[in-house]
Amino acid sequence: MQKAPLLLVPLGALAALVLVFVLMKKREPEGGMGGPVGILKRGGSTDSAAAESARLRSENEALRKEVEAARRRAEAAEMKLAEASAEAASPEKAADAKKAAAKKGGDWKKRRDAELEAKVKSMDWRKNTKGLMDYWKELEKARVEGRAPRMDPDMAEALTQLQKDAAELYEFLGKEGKNMWDAFNNELVQEAWMDAFLHELTGGSVTEDQLSRLRTTALYRTEEPNFQDGSLLEAWKWLIEHNKSYTSDTAGVLTPEQLSKVAQSVPPTFMLSVYAQYAERNLSGAGAVTDYWLDSFKVPADQRAAVESVAGEFTKQLAELTQAYTSQYGSTLPRDADFELRLKALELQIAAENKLAQTLQLDAEQLKKLTKGSGAVIKLVN
């Protein structure tokens, strides 16, 4: 039997694939100090505040349009200058110079020209997403069975191709640096990725009209937490909430049959072990939780009492929460209840570990470990 080829996509690199759930800058809420609330705080009446707010919004929109027009004029001038310089030096290099100027100019995240579109369409996104989903299923199966994950040749080939495609897109977009997964920040690339996921989850039945409607939802426009340096628990919470949107954002767009397929394929932990190294730890009570935290955060034994206090409160709250859901639904929770319980349990654990950071006497390295999180979702067992 032929051996599986060496996998070129280690788990650490695959974790960065969360950039697929590409970014949109957060908008400042209207209640900020520049909006109606801020005006009222400065003493204006409700009517005058509303009028002033409308005037400021109008001026801001006009300024935005003016800046955008100036930016486009500058990009066009830069491209023409590059073309003229290239043609004067070497006509053969003119085309390459034009491409380079196009890549440099403007916001590469919003680039959607015909050349990029052709490049994106040339890639087998269905195969890429299927390979990654198969890898996630194997990771989950291996975790439950307590063994190392195994790769078959098809899975390894798909993951290797995904890495190659990401590298090609990164270079094609004119990007430099080591993080080739930044290519997925481009909205056209991100659309192709999410389209492929939805095709895979619905058995290829999703239509172009449905995709067009779904591309306007938060499922396609999301901001990810800091998966590299931030809290793992916060990252997992964010990803679980994102997984909920696979059904909440598609309801009313997908058919009932399609929606049922998506619901069955996307549990709360969908892709978490690939995107952010999701893990669980079964512990028997406050003492076991205390030992786990002491070891995870390298807390000196002389601070055990402080850890025990937080662990005792946390395990009591977690046990009560779990019991409430078990009493209502039984041992097998419905999908929505499963999402709810996991999110609430994570909130309890995040609060407990934050309390440890505020309570314990820690050096810089220990505090850094606490900020990152203990590395596993705590599950209580009898």
Write the layout of secondary structure elements.
Elements: H1 11-15, H2 36-41, H3 46-89, H4 94-104, H5 114-121, H6 125-145, H7 153-172, H8 187-201, H9 208-214, H10 232-248, H11 256-265, H12 272-276, E1 280-283, H13 286-297, H14 304-329, H15 335-359, H16 364-372, E2 377-380
Parallel strand pairs: 1-2
Helix pairs in contact: 3-4, 6-7, 6-8, 10-15, 13-14, 14-15
Report on the architecture of this protein.
It contains 16 helices and two strands. It is an all-alpha fold and 382 residues long. The protein has three domains: 24-106, no CATH class; 119-276, no CATH class; 280-380, no CATH class. It has a two-stranded parallel sheet with strand order 1-2. Helix 13 crosses helix 14 and helix 14 (304-329) runs antiparallel to helix 15 (335-359). The longest helix has 44 residues, at 46-89. The protein is globular.
Compact description:
The chain is globular, with a radius of gyration of 25 Å. It has a two-stranded parallel ribbon.
Characteristic terms for this protein:
disordered N terminus; mainly alpha; two-stranded parallel ribbon; 382 residues
Radius of gyration: 25 Å
Q: Could you report the average pLDDT, rounded to the nearest whole number?
A: 79
Helix percent reads 55-70%
Largest sheet: 2 strands, parallel
How many helical elements?
Answer: 16
Number of domains: 3
- Total strand segments: 2
SSE-based structural type: mainly alpha
Strand and helix order: HHHHHHHHHHHHEHHHHE
Query: Strand order within the widest sheet?
Result: 1-2
Strand content: under 5%
Distance from first to last alpha carbon: 45 Å
Report low-confidence residues grouped into runs of 5 or more: 1-54
Shape: globular
